[in-house]
Amino acid sequence: MTxxxxxxxxRIDELDDEIVRLLAARFAVVREVAEVKRSENIPAVLxxxxxxxxxxxxxxxxxxxxxxxxxxxxxxxxIEEACRIEDERIAAH
Length: 93
Known about the structure:
Layout: H1 6-40, H2 47-61, H3 68-91
Helix pairs in contact: 1-3, 2-3
């Protein structure tokens, strides 16, 4: 009975793999940003930027048939991890 789901599961797995690759690429950029913030004495967390990123993601969600509330929550987690990485990188120097 689950054989009928196999092609869908393969597609979902491929998309999940791509999501993880994109997160890794995003966090690689975050590490670069942390170095700039450290050298320029810029705070790791910039609340206005956090809100800007969440709002932008939520705006983009609706036309793509995604729940903007869900996307805001998801970006909250992504940003939380980005801030952790930045704090760690800045503290390491």
